[in-house]
Amino acid sequence: MKKTADFLIDRRHILLAVMLVLTAVCVFLARKVPVNKDRTKYLADDSGMKHGISVIHSDFPEEAEKSSVRVMFDNLSAKEIPEIKARLEALPNVSSVAYEPDSADYNRDNHTLFIVRSQFDYSTDEEKAIEDAIAREFSGYAAACRNDDVPATDVPFRLITIVFLFGIARLSSTWGLILFSRTSPSLLRPSDRFSSLYSPWTTPSF
User: Fold this and answer.
1) pLDDT tens digits, one per residue of 104-150
2) Roughly what angle, to the nearest 10 degrees, separates helices 157-183 and 2-10?
3) Ranges of H-type helices in the chain
4) pLDDT tens-digit profile of 50-74?
5) Range of the structural domain that residue 139 is part of
């Protein structure tokens, strides 16, 4: 134990540098971990539940749509709206485009919203191609688009940074305490200094 403690104290700067590098690498790689959101992929091919889901998808095709992209345009005329909708429906990998002329959910002030749906899951090449095609096809319009993906591990980077810095501060204070106790143990353990005074085996001297 003493050798291990000596190693941790004497090589604390090297260990701190190694842990900082490993933590930085983990923070970067954590954002690239793919998340499988289709739980049916874990079911066996002969599973009754998987067969039932395939029947639902065949009878209700809209339920098979796995991703959606919201595209909002500004200052579209009544003539442009059906043209834009048709152009969105013609994009590759798009299964449907939702828009309701009389709904406040799709029309508000000078904003017009279209919901582009696809049978391909988020973060796939096909879904990314849809977003790229929208940005390229409608670059001349005042438009903005975003998908409805909500990552399961969407942790704000600022929160990760705060936790990381807090951990480093706690680690540094712990090492400082160990080093201080090694050099001046009597200052941190006053009970040791007075143990002889209160020990029942100590003979008082007068």
Assistant:
1) 999 999 999 999 999 888 888 889 999 999 999 998 899 998 888 86
2) 120
3) 2-10, 12-30, 48-59, 80-89, 125-137, 157-183, 185-188, 190-198
4) 777 677 666 665 555 678 899 999 9
5) 63-147
| Helix pair 157-183, 12-30: axis angle to 10 deg | 170
Q: How confident is the model at residue 187 (pLDDT cuts 50, 70, 90)?
A: very low
Q: What is the CATH number of the domain that holds 118?
A: 3.30.70.100
What pTM does this model have?
0.51
In a domain, 127, yes or no: yes
Split into its structural domains, the chain has a count of 1
Question: Would 21 be classed as within a structural domain?
Answer: no
On average, the pLDDT of the chain sits at 76
Distance between CA atoms of residues 133 and 5, nearest Å: 59
Task: Provide the token pair at 31.
Answer: 């954002």
Q: Residue type for 30, please?
A: A
> Is 181 inside any structural domain?
no
The C-alpha atoms of residue 101 and residue 96 are separated, in whole angstroms, by 16
Residue 115 contacts by C-beta under 8 Å, 6 or more apart in sequence? 68, 69, 70, 71, 97, 98, 99
pLDDT at 197 (0 to 100): 44
Q: Which residues, in sequence order, are bridge partners of residue 143? A: 73
